[in-house]
Amino acid sequence: MGKTAEQMAPIEQKKMCCAEDGEDTSTHMTDELQRNLMNRMNRIEGQVKGVKRMIDRNVYCDDILTQVSAVQSALHSVSRLLLESHINTCVMDRLEIKDPEIVAEFMTTISKIMK
């Protein structure tokens, strides 16, 4: 179900970040948030490489599991930041124009991240 030009105008002016399937998407992510997320992802990448080294060196399983848990926690933190930003920008924008598809889309997103 497509949106009318009147419905799309407010979002297009704000650079829509939650486009329909097949459309180009952009984000309302601030430069600060993007830097924060990239820094976190770089640290997570380093942690994952550290876990791989631990496995390669045959480190005690309990120690490896502790590091895996730390990586998972860090990824959950990234997800929380992204979710908060998504709600405060994309979701709110689409609620303002009474886009009926946003609730189903958001529930699908929540279902995916709660697995």
Automatic annotation (TrEMBL):
Record-linked InterPro entries: Metal_Tscrpt_repr, Metal_Tscrpt_repr_sf
One protein family per Pfam: Trns_repr_metal
Name this protein carries in UniProt: Metal-sensing transcriptional repressor
Naturally occurring in which organism (per UniProt): Oceanobacillus aidingensis
